[in-house]
Amino acid sequence: MIRKLCDQAVELRPGMRGGTGTVSVQSLFAPDEFGASVRLCARLTLPAGASIGNHAHEGEDEVYVITRGQGRLTDGDTETIVGPGDAVLTGRGASHSIANAGDEPLELIAFIARYPAKAGA
Questions:
Q1: Is the whole-model pTM more than 0.90?
Q2: Residue 24 domain boundaries
């Protein structure tokens, strides 16, 4: 399946997860387009001064791949500057947040996969 840029829906989320500013969420593929249990597959853009607040990932894993700009990532108790090409994996109940640490937009690909349901649960 190919999704052209002009066909990717964009949603603006002010104060995403308790963060600051407005994050642009550009859907690459919708969850129901996957055979696997996926909650999000999107390009996120955080303008200067914007952030995504701290949040935990219970029952799922989230991957960030930074494609543009510089971010200040808090992963549990660790704070790190991330940039283009850096990849982040958060899951198993861990929490993270990210803030634009520069003057240009921070852009990343975000992918959230849900854990399979346990039999008898």
A1: yes
A2: 5-114
